[in-house]
Write a structure and sequence with these properties.
The complex is a heterodimer. Chain A is an all-alpha fold. In chain A, 75% of the residues lie in helices and 1% in strands. Chain A has a two-stranded antiparallel ribbon. The longest helix of chain A is centred in the first third of the chain and has 40 residues. Chain B has one domain. Chain B contains eleven helices and no strands. In chain B, helix 10 runs antiparallel to helix 11. The longest helix of chain B has 57 residues. The chains are: A mainly alpha, B mainly alpha. Chain A: Belongs to the EXO70 family. Chain A: It holds the Pfam family Exo70_C. Chain A: GO terms for molecular function: phosphatidylinositol-4,5-bisphosphate binding.
Chain lengths: 645, 398
Amino acid sequence: MEKPGDHATESSETIPHKSNDLENTNHPDESEHQSHNNDQTETATTPESESSQLSLSQVMEAVDDFIQSLSSSTDPLQEIPPAVEPFPETVDSLVSKMESSGLGRDESEDSAFIDAVNRISISVMRLRELNLDSTPVSSWLNRASSVQHRAVSLLDEEFRHLLDRSIENKKKNGDGNNHDHESDQSVLHENEQEEETFPDFPPESIATLKKIAGAMISAGYETECCMSYETSRRHAFKEELAEIGFEGINVEDVQRIPWESLQGEIASWISIVRRCSSVFFPGELSLCSTVFPEQDHSPIRKRLFTGLVSAVTIRFLDFSGAVVLTKRSSEKLFKFLDMYETLRDLIPAVEESDSDLIQEIKLSQTRLGEAAVTIFGELENSIKTDIGRTPVPSGAVHPLTRYTMNYLKYACEYKDTLDQVFQHYEKAETDETEPEPERNQREDDEEYKTSAFARQMIRVMELLDANLEVKSGLYRDPSLRSIFLMNNGRYILQKIKGSTEIRDLMGQAWTRKRSTELRQYHKSYQRETWGKVLQCMNQEGLQVNGKISKTALKERFKIFNNMFDEIHKTQSTWIVSDEQMQSELRVSIAALVIPAYRSFFGRYKQHIDSGRHTDKYVKYQPEDIESVIDDLFDGNPASMGRKRT
Amino acid sequence: MRPAQDNQGSFLGRISIRRNQFTDVNTEQEQEDLELFQKHIADRFTELLSPPPPPQPPSDETNTAASVPATEQIMSVTWLRKLMDVFLCCEAEFKAILLMGRDPTQISKPPFDRLVPEMLDRSIKALDICTAVVNGIDSVRHYQRLAEIAVAALEQRPLGDGNVRRAKRALSNLLIALSIEDKENVSGGGRGGGSSAASKGGATIGQLKSSSWAVGRNWSAAKQIHAMTANLAPPRGNEAAGLPLPMFIMSTVTVFVMWVLTAAVPCQERAGLANHLPVPKHLNWAQSLVGIHEKIGDEWKKKEKKGSAGLMEEMTRMEKLGHSLVEFADGFHYPAEKEAAESAAAQVAEMAEICRRMEEELVPLQQQIREVFHRIVRSRAEILEVLEQAGKLSAPVV
């Protein structure tokens, strides 16, 4: 054995240590330890610690050589080299010192300490591997492993303190913006945008954590290290969830609380899940990678990150599962879709881990999707079952039309999601559905082919149309029937034009078709109401033997007046709420009636003019016609001071 | 859904034809199904109570003390996994009886208008218990890791003071965790966990508790189980021969399985559960179930007094081994005495074996419980769907 001898001469300064027995070595250390405690001034401790570090570094060198010799030497080791012999006690005194001062105060001291612990660990490990039968060696090994345990326990404690410190900081800082989380979603959205550092550790803590983790793992204390890390991070996460107001709410409570309160819970859920996707999970991953950076720490990183992600994610899924179980109703659709989207966006963050929950997330999504489909189906149902027997007065837009269209408009804000949902659902239902007859007919339409949701929309529209068709039958006056259909059709068309989403979804062809239909209602209204009016201004039948028959003429004027009055009376109570359509209607009526009346009036008025009671027959000057027409569709029976009969 | 809407007339016609068929089939086929169901329930639980001998003679392992291999014993993790399988089988069979080929309106009429909602309410409660138990298994995994530390430390050769101290630290934490009183055993963070035992060393129990999840504030497994049994009564008279019987059986099985799970692992608030579980004693299908219940109940009552984290067989043995290994650690002087070291080594090997089994089976058990959770959700949805259909059918047709 060459090397130990070499060292004995080289590291002569360690001889005093070496010659002392265990108790003696402890004494100077304890005194140093005390001076460290009593005297806070740096100057008093510096020379001493410098001198001890000098000797320490030399001991460490000796240990390094010793470790080297353990793996290279072929002779069985009989005893520990003198320079290395007191090393356990040296480290023990370092532990005592560290116990009182704590890590993270002086980086070089920390490093020296960690280096010493690492050397103890390596020596212990190598000696164990050699499995020697020498009593002095075994005794040294026992001392070394004792010290190692003491040192690593200290590191473990420090590790947890450092990890927990971030939670405490968070608590102090977090109070300020606490209430923001509880307000509505848009605010939460803004919060998300702001720069958030998570988890919030000062860089020096991170550096220390890294060192400790490395030392613990190489000492074989991986399990303790991971346990401390895991416990602390879970705790931090729980705090984080509680802060946002998401505290495990169970399935039963979710069923019990009113929707209003549940909405609040859903809002916090959405907010926290989003923050997990964008901030917390990536933050945890990077913390994990920083604290356990080594190549061979990779499985540890994965395991810790996966464990945390799984534990948290399962909470989220429990909640969404509980919400889906609640009774379905139309107002829930949008919240369900929000949740669906939130889960979808969570997947990439969870995929960074080895979590086996991806399938469960997708399952939860499917459930939310199915619920959305059902709720959407409820809309269809409510259209089908809306079978009131009383027509809406004045032919105005039916509440069902308003409700359906507004609902669809909101739904279209989720059109991509709904499309996914319906596609998924259709795929699942493929076996059950019968061949759809509309398919061929619509194949020319691009939108139809691509979008499952568009098909749903069209179905709803068709149902609505069919329902309105039936409702229009409640009006006995065919003109009012047309006005009703026009009003509703126009409302639908305007809603569609007003929302890019619906417009794109339904396609241009569909919109064109709706416009054509509207024009047809318009025409049939004109025909119904004004056809007869125009007919009475016909020249036919007015001439008897080539001469104008005054009686016939008077009769015609009378008929016109009566009809016109009647129209005025009834149709000014009708409503056309869309201003443009109202004016279009009036203009078109005017264009139809005024020239006809003007010409009728101009041609035949003179024949009655001579007689008395002219105004008995000629009630309207051509100029009056326009102002009467302008009264129509105002929904205002009082405009002419006439009573309704 | 659509065909039913579009041509309700013909759909109704179809239903009424089927209904006529039912009356014919009802008496014979259904009786047969019900008897078969009861028989299957009885068989499955009989197998759980006394598993058939293993096909091969047990190999020479350290663990030959019990006649039944430890893995098969009641409350072992393997057994619990079997129990979950049994539950899933029973549930599937029950659902087939309840829903398949049945006229939807039948289960919306009395007495089902009362029985079905009650059953659904029980299923909701079972879901929360599943969640609590999954959380509980997380704690068991934590115990497993503590035990693994002890095993790793005590397997070191030569065994030194450092190793023993390390093992002792882990074991002390393990024993504290295993023996916390039920009342204290709330996963919620609400309680001040300032117990003296948790003050030093290792990831403390206080910390562990504060990092695990609760099923909600004030939630109590005991209360839930209690509520699940509150309106659970065997059907009488006419009902005893029909559908109410399998409903009662399935509900009993569900409550029982949930009760076993809460007994097995740490679970939020379960005080008093040891005594409380009314199981129907005189019914044929329930014989073995009652047998299992009595076994577990007795064990529970014993443990309840001194506090226990759970009755899972592996945990119980872990606790025993933990105590004697702590004793070993306390009396340890370097170098180790040969005799003490040898007996400790055997215990360490047993502990290692327990850890290995836990490592293999706890996560799958957790997954099975999640599966049970999903199954219950799915069934609930299917039943509701049928009820809804029934509601539409019975609503006045327009």
